[in-house]
Write a structure and sequence with these properties.
11 strands, Muramoyl-pentapeptide Carboxypeptidase, domain 2, globular, 25% helix, binds zinc ion, 15% strand, alpha+beta
Length: 296
């Protein structure tokens, strides 16, 4: 590459960092010394270019992302000040499709929690995943009438679907429309997995509305937390070789031994002594394409 070409290549890289509102990585700074969450949280706008997912949901980023509109006919974005309502265009379309189904499920609309930062990547707080633009959190709450004000969307508390002791599901709160909402999300072809609290998975396993085809239950996985919202994860876009997908869930509806495990002490046991705390991810831990957003 001639000097002139090299200079223009560097200029383009620097411009890409500046155009997304982030600080470019200083030349020569080793990538393993740069905390990835700091630099990705500083990205103000999506990176341009064709939509591409890089890496995994917990070590990745994306380019060509789009924003979910602040509100639509049947949804409102919660905590918009966090600037985490971006994702791969297919994820945004899937959230919109789910929102459009809400009235047929017995809801006015859905309240959408965090998707990803404008270019994804690790976050300084809140989620280990949601990095590659394929994850979306949906609250267990109906969109009220009148709609939430801008201030309420920042401040209103999430409501637990569990009893106060956390040992059972509060069936006055987790009502049929929410069961239908999880089922509708799980039945979408684009959706790979859904995470809910074990009590919610149990309720869905026993639900009289489950239907003859229980195969959608396979996608609904018990996990820690997730009693105020559920987490929807999409498959990698078809043919996108830079996207690394999570393994498929084990076969079956997940209502047997997989679920029983969550009602034993094992998942809640403290980590064995000497277990190392995971260190924060650096830019070097992510695919090279993620560093390139910042000229790295
Ligand atoms: Zn989530």
């Amino acid at each position: 590459m001639g000097l002139q070409n090299l200079c223009s290549a560097i200029a383009i890289l620097l411009m890409s960092a500046v155009s997304v509102g982030a600080q470019p990585i200083p030349a020569g700074k080793p990538l393993h010394t740069i905390p990835a969450a700091d630099i990705f949280a500083g990205v103000a706008r999506p990176v341009g270019g064709p939509a591409a997912v890089h890496g995994t949901t917990s070590r990745g980023c994306f380019t060509g992302g789009v924003a979910l509109a602040d509100e639509g006919a049947t949804w409102q974005v919660m905590r918009p000040s966090r600037n985490r309502y971006y994702a791969h265009p297919r994820t945004v379309a899937t959230v919109e499709r789910l929102a459009a189904l809400a009235p047929s499920l017995g809801l006015r609309g859905i309240l959408v929690g965090d998707l990803s930062q404008p270019a994804g990547g690790p976050m300084p707080w809140g989620h280990a995943s949601h990095q590659s633009g394929l994850d979306a959190d949906i609250w267990f709450a109906d969109m009220p009438e009148p709609r939430l004000t801008a201030e309420e969307r920042e401040t209103i508390e999430m409501q637990s679907m569990l009893t106060p002791d956390g040992k059972a599901l509060d069936t006055t709160r987790f009502t049929a429309p929410f069961a239908r909402l999880v089922a509708a999300a799980a039945k979408m072809d684009q959706v790979q997995r859904i995470f809910v609290h074990p009590q919610i998975k149990l309720a869905l396993c026993q639900w009289d509305g489950v239907g003859d085809d229980r195969s959608w239950l396979r996608k609904v996985r018990p996990w820690y937390g997730h009693y105020e919202h559920f987490h929807m994860r999409l498959f990698c876009p078809a043919g996108m070789t830079t996207c690394r997908e999570q393994n498929p869930p084990p076969p079956g509806d997940g209502c047997g031994a997989d679920l029983e495990y969550w009602f034993t002490p094992a998942p809640y046991a403290p980590a064995p002594k000497g277990t190392k705390k995971r260190r924060p991810l650096t830019v070097a831990d992510l695919p090279a394409a993620c560093a390139r957003i910042f000229g790295g």
